[in-house]
Amino acid sequence: VSSSSSGGSGELPFDLSIDVAGTGDLWFRTNFADIEMALKLRIFTLERKPTVNGYVSAVRGRITLLQRDFQITEGLVNIIQGNPPVMQLNVTAETRVRSVISHEEYVITIVISGDLENLDISLSCQGPSGLMVQEDILTLLAVGLTYGEMQQMNSSSIRSEVENVAQTMLG
User: Cβ(92)–Cβ(109) under 8 Å?
Assistant: First the structure.
């Protein structure tokens, strides 16, 4: 929100306090997300400048990563007043992947947290034998195999694809 009536400084010549709330049927849709949201926001002036405070939460939805849909199990954006406001993100989503070799099922969880300038993205996986290492998670997402299964196949083209995925995901 900005105001050009005071020379473009963004200051408002009046006090503002608007409450906005919604409990569903509000959607955020992109090519990588489809999320139904609830929100509770207060738009107000702070030192004569507009700001916002409150939260947006995920009611349900999915995010797509590496052509796989992760179902959101928890999603919250806290918006902390300031000029500009600070947004703290905390999203947890999971997907199930079945190995194309062993046919065992793995549950892969992604957690995205932090402020929008400095997001932390982590992957974890629970498999039939317990927690999995990052190499297994990335190969499961990329080609539907654990890293050990891929090594047994000794395929350079699969290994190259996994390395590309790892570089894209982890920088």
Answer: yes
